[in-house]
Amino acid sequence: MEPIAATILVTNDDGIRAPGLAVLAEAMGTIAGRVIVAAPDREQSGIAHALTIRRPLRLEEVAPDRFAVDGSPADCVDLVVLGLLDEPPDLVVSGINPGFNLGDDVVYSGTVAGAREGHMLGIPSLAVSTAFEADERAYREAAAWAVRFARVLLEGRLPVRTFLNVNVPPGAERCRVTRQGRRASRPALLRRTDPKGKEYWWIGLAGSRWEPDGDADHAAVAEGIVSVTPLQLDATCREAFARLGALATCPTPVGEDR
Ligand code: MN
Known about the structure:
Blueprint: E1 5-11, H1 19-28, E2 32-40, E3 59-63, E4 66-69, H2 73-84, E5 91-98, H3 105-108, H4 110-120, E6 125-130, H5 136-154, E7 163-168, E8 175-177, E9 189-193, E10 199-203, H6 217-222, E11 226-231, H7 241-249
Helix pairs in contact: 1-5, 2-4
């Protein structure tokens, strides 16, 4: 296959040894002249968009163009784009995460943050996730979908400021453009006692009840359909503009009912 990109950067939040990373890098190799992989040296799931700024970062080239970094996914993208490469990569791809990144989880996701950091640096970017119980076949399917969306980005057919969050349920045969949903259930907070009798807390899984929304990412995945959400950095609530503006200029203090 003819390469349509010079360089693609692949990262993840599951660490340099994660199976999803290898499958994704291999798939990107079918459309890029060079695939450079930079991933955390250990699992960083849930690290979100953290940047390591209070200590130095080390990277180890574990194989040619394969780098393990003692930091977050965002650190990995910065090191490669701002440090290692003279020219920015044509695309940043993050994943394949075992476990969907839907709705509120997008905020906590290190996988999505890897793509978001690429986007912040002006590079077309996408994140890709599949089911938590992903096997080799599920990873391959997700990688094939990632290549499809990589093509859309690389061919410049999406000329707006966005990056993509792709979730691939195993066996999916079609895709749907979705919006980021909202979770209805809260995380379980576990309260336990350690072997020395001292209490500790552990934030557990949030459960998978969602606010009903047929257009949301979780709805597509629940139907076995690939969800692709165009995300943006600007989290401004535009609906609040007029109301807040009116409140701010009127004599009553903000927040008081009029
Ligand atoms: Mn992960």
